[in-house]
Amino acid sequence: MPRIAVVYYYEPETGRAMELLGHFAEAKALMIKAGASDVVVAQSQGGTSPGTFVFQVQYESGATFGAAVDGLTTNQAWMEFWARISVNPAGKLVRHEMFTGIDI
Fold this sequence. Notes:
Elements: E1 4-12, H1 17-34, E2 38-43, E3 53-59, H2 62-72, H3 76-86, E4 91-100
Antiparallel strand pairs: 1-3, 1-4, 2-3
């Protein structure tokens, strides 16, 4: 069964990179509890967007992805977290992608 990875690219606001990482840590805990199999955070060290953070959420299958995403709309902890960090975001979403693993 193919895995799903949803990837978000964020540019931190000036001086707020550590705050953004704290938000990622909170989001990771909530996403794992909601059904994600793993959450990986990385920072670009070169290329076209140095300093950009990558927040990747992995799911075991399309079914687990769908169930987790559908559940977030009624997940009180997620809604409160999102409302709090959206008031004055520590980073700007600059790109979003979704990948489906291919078994070869």
